[in-house]
Amino acid sequence: MANPTYIGQIIGQVNEVTEHCGPVFLYGENIDRGSRISGLARGLKVNPAGRIQNVGDCELTHCGIGFGIMLDGGNAGLFVKQLDFMLLGLDQFANTFNSIRAFRQRNTLGSFTVFVIVCDQGYQGPQSSFNGAGDFASIANVPVFCLNGAGDASRVVQKHFVAPGFRMMCLSQRLFGAPVLDVPVETCDEDRGLFRYRSGNDATIVSFNFSLRDSLEMDTHLRGAGMQSDVFHMNFVPRMDMGALVESCRRTRKLVLVDDSKTVTKFGDRLVTELCARGINVKVLSFCRRGCADTDYGATEDRFLPDVERVLAFMRHPACSQ
Hints:
32% of the residues lie in helices and 20% in strands. The chain is α/β, with parallel strands linked by helices. It has 2 domains: 170 residues, 3-Layer(aba) Sandwich (Rossmann fold), CATH 3.40.50; 134 residues, 3-Layer(aba) Sandwich (Rossmann fold), CATH 3.40.50.920. The chain has a 6-stranded parallel beta sheet with strand order 2-1-3-4-6-5, with helices on both faces. α1 packs parallel to α5 and α2 runs parallel beside α3. It starts with 5 loop residues before the first helix and ends in a 6-residue tail after the last helix.
């Protein structure tokens, strides 16, 4: 595909899996008609043993179906128009899945994956703008991946889609029509929770949610000023190994957190706590929204933009001593 879009590249990765994975059941509201779930399912394909099925609007049941297929050893993929709708499935994510994993070994299960749009493009109103993927990871204690570019999307989809167990893969509505972010991945961990895109000794930049493009742009400005950074993207994966991040911060002594979600609790806080527990003295600059003002829940621009000038000023101050 020439000059693929963000969403086109992700669907291409999904199709690479469904072409060879055998029986797989893909389903969602309007998955095979109309807008194809606002473009989320446009171009979706399965092999002859698979099936694409349109279903009605009952999200709690949709999630139950996915867990049922998983329990029976099958592969299920639920495609959802917006993360807001998945609040209706939280009982299944927490209580049903807790019951399953309490009595079944993961290697005896099939696969259930939710592909869901996060409505982060603005002007959507209070019931179409829930931007809190990390909260699902915390409540249900499950991996939640926010797909940002070609490098992380291909590795996450290939590793986890149709793999035993349950997970969520979130996509940014704001980026749907944007050119794919095709930046080489330098390293990633086994669970695909942590990706490193650039290396440097002057700062550690960590992006969360859908802020990787902002973080890379920030690093580009710093490099133009003669400073180089480690740039990581961190998914919402409980119990993930943060050793690479800790060692980076130990070396650079400066940490920049970039998180465009609206959650009050942040996965970046876990990193800072880990650094403190290890006695690593680091200066921290945080570009993180913690909830919203009441007026922000209406139809607003809803665009999160880190201040590059603040980053430059932060970098000009001496790092913490060791």
